[in-house]
Design a protein that fits this description.
Length: 88
């Protein structure tokens, strides 16, 4: 689901969410109940607040080896991080 959501962030309204859930073969009744549940709302709120406290201001944001990287990183940039290249 996350790949579908990130690939088309301009269409996050219910009809589009339901289409994606259908495409993935999800039970639409459970999907709707779960996404509107108090437990999911509380989890999203906690995760959001944690990100704000950590300095996240955009998506995507990556934390690697104690450093924050904002914005999209291409394969070369990720490889450089993995290889221990100098960090900003």
């Amino acid at each position: 689901m996350h790949e579908l959501l990130f690939s088309d962030q301009g269409r996050l309204e219910d009809p589009h969410l339901w289409d994606r859930a259908r495409e993935l073969g999800l039970d639409l009744g459970r999907f709707e109940a779960d996404r509107r549940s108090d437990a999911v709302r509380d989890r999203v709120r906690r995760d959001f607040q944690s990100g704000v406290r950590a300095g996240v201001v955009t998506t995507p944001t990556l934390f690697y080896d104690g450093h924050l990287y904002s914005g999209q990183l291409d394969a070369d940039a990720l490889s450089a991080l993995e290889g221990g290249a100098d960090r900003a």
